[in-house]
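In this section we walk through a basic example: taking a raw amino acid sequence and producing a predicted 3D structure, encoded as discrete structure tokens. The instruction is simple. Fold the sequence below.
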Amino acid sequence: MNAQIDISNTILETNRLILRPWKQSDIHDFFEYASVDGVGQLAGWAPHKTIEDSQTVLNKFIEEKKTFAIVLKENSKVIGAFGIENYNYEEFSGYDEFRCREIGISVSKDYWGQGIAHEAVTEVMRYLFDELNLDYVFYCHSKRNTQSQRVKEKCGFTNINEFTYTTHIGTVEYSIGAVMSRDEWKDRK
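The resulting token sequence is shown next.
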């Protein structure tokens, strides 16, 4: 089952990052990275054309209370978003009795290849398993998203299925679904 999530009072920290709830004052940083071609398409959304596009999504992030802003400690700049999403019961059948969620991340193109996503995923996994006591966490990415594939592998997720899905921009993607259990997480620590 999809566990209840409310991150509105949660702040997580790593060596380089703060993961915290979004604020209205994040709008310009958000638009800056979300408007860059190539960032959103890998996650199934179109680059933001206007600041109003970013404002609509930002309002949703704040309202739904399940998406962290990824903030660099060194300059307080928002460089990404980390969602703790509902998982799809059809794509991941057999987990109905367990507390689960799916994670998704986007990072500014300026910070690709620097280990930011791995650092953020590791900390959010700690939070989900150690503080919220989830049983399983799912991680999906399109087959063409090699950055997400590398993060998934580094973090120790196990591929369990492949499926197609239609993105927010109307494209059909071939996706790989992966999972990690709380026991696997504890073994990796």
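Looking at the output, two observations stand out. The beta strands are 12-13, 17-21, 67-72, 78-85, 100-107, 136-142, 158-166, 172-181. The CA atoms of residues 17 and 73 lie 5 Å apart. In the next section we compare this with other chains.
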